Amino acid sequence: MIKVLVVDDQPVVRSGMRMILENEAGIEVVGEAGGGKEAVDSVLELHPDVVLLDLHMPDMNGIEVTRIVNGSPHPPRIIIVTAYDPDQYVFESLTAGASGFLLKSDAPTRFVEAVRAVYAGESLFSPVVTRQLVERYVHGPHVGTESPATDSLTSREMDVLLKVAQGLSNKETALALFISVGTVKTHIASILVKLNVRDRLQIVVYAYETGLVRPGGTGNIHLADSF
C-alpha cells in the first residue's frame, strides 16, 4: 500500500485529490495538511511514502517544505503541484529534491501515475513542465564544471549516465551499449549512490549542471519519454 499525504491550502482541492487517489487499488491517503508547517509535522508523524505538495501556501511554499522534508531520516517522495505557470519553479523544485511536478489542470489519471512512478523511484512531470525543462536546457545559458563525484564512476557507469542524460530509456541504453536492461538498472542504482542523487531525473539535472552534457545534445527532445 502506497501511503500518500495530500497538502494544499484549499480544502476542496485536498478533497478532490483524496477522492482520485482512494479510488485506486494500492493507494491510501493517510492524511491531509493545509499549510507548509503542518505538512512538515505530518510527514514526521505519519511517515508517508509520497507527498502531493501544493507549491503556493501562505506560511511556507512547497519548495521550502521539500528542502526541510528531504533532511528527515526517511524522506518521502515529493510531487509538487501548482495551478500557476511553473516555469520559474521547476528547476528549483528539482534541486530541492522533488521527484515530480504537476499542474492542477492535469488529468486525474496523471496524479495516480505520478504517485506510482515516484514511489517506484522514477519521476513524472506534466507534459507542459517537461517541455519547459527541456527548453531551459536547450536554449538557456549553461555554466558548469565536472564534479569530483564523477571520478568514482566506472567507465561503463559513465556511459550509462550519458545515455540517461541524453534522454534514452533503459531499453534504449541497453541496445546502445550492448548490455542487458538488468545491467543498465544495476548501473543506474550505483550511479544514484555515488552521485548522491535520488532518482533518474536528478541524474539528468546533475549531468547538465556539471557540464557532462551540453544543451542541444542528441536525445534532449525525448526527455519526456524517459521517465
Major β-sheet strand ordering: 2-1-3-4-5-6
- The count of helical stretches stands at 10
CATH level 1 name of the largest domain: Alpha Beta
Number of strands: 6
Shape category: globular
Distance between the termini: 22 Å
Radius of gyration: 17 Å
Q: Which H/E pattern describes the elements?
A: EHEHEHEHEHEHHHHH
Q: Assign a percent range to the helix content.
A: 40-55%
CATH topology of the largest domain: Rossmann fold
* Fourth CATH level, the homologous superfamily of the largest domain: Response regulator
Write a short abstract of this structure.
With 227 residues, this protein is an alpha/beta fold.
Folded structure, characterized:
The protein has 227 residues and is α/β, with parallel strands linked by helices. The protein has two domains: 2-126, Rossmann fold; 148-225, Response regulator (Rossmann fold), CATH 3.40.50.2300. 48% of the residues lie in helices and 13% in strands. The chain is built from ten helices and six strands. It has helices at residues 11-22, 36-46, 62-69, 87-96, 108-119, 127-139, 155-165, 170-177, 181-195, 200-209, and strands at residues 2-7, 27-33, 50-54, 77-82, 100-103, 124-125. The two termini are 22 Å apart. The model is unreliable at 217-227 (pLDDT under 50).
Strands, helices and their partners?
Layout: E1 2-7, H1 11-22, E2 27-33, H2 36-46, E3 50-54, H3 62-69, E4 77-82, H4 87-96, E5 100-103, H5 108-119, E6 124-125, H6 127-139, H7 155-165, H8 170-177, H9 181-195, H10 200-209
Parallel strand pairs: 1-2, 1-3, 3-4, 4-5, 5-6
